[in-house]
Amino acid sequence: MVSSSAVAKTFAKCLSCDSTFVAELSADGSIRPLGIARECTCGEGDFVSLG
């Protein structure tokens, strides 16, 4: 069975400190970094997909 909410893996960059993380990119365009909280280790939460 296939889930209706497609999620792709990507690399994401923090817009504040330029740290990069492996992340999930949802169909709605939201980015969720993997292995850390929803915010970057610098405390910000704005990411851009590099993929």
Overview features:
single chain, 51 residues, mainly beta, 4-stranded antiparallel β-sheet, globular
What does this structure look like?
A 4-stranded antiparallel β-sheet has the order 3-2-1-4, with no helix packed on it. The protein has no helices and 4 strands. The protein has one domain. Strand 2 (20-26) and strand 3 form a beta hairpin. The protein is an all-beta fold. It is 0% helix and 41% strand.
Based on secondary structure, the structural category is: mainly beta
Mind describing the biggest β-sheet? 4 strands, antiparallel
The average pLDDT is 88
- Percent of residues in beta strands: 35-45%
Question: Could you say which overall geometry the principal axes of the C-alpha atoms support?
Answer: globular
Question: Considering DSSP H and I runs of 4 or more, what fraction of the residues is helical?
Answer: under 10%
The tally of domains stands at 1
N-to-C order of helices and strands:
EEEE
Summarize the structure.
The protein is mainly beta. It is built from no helices and 4 strands. 0% of the residues lie in helices and 41% in strands.
Layout of SSEs?
Elements: E1 7-14, E2 20-26, E3 31-33, E4 47-49
Antiparallel strand pairs: 1-2, 1-4, 2-3
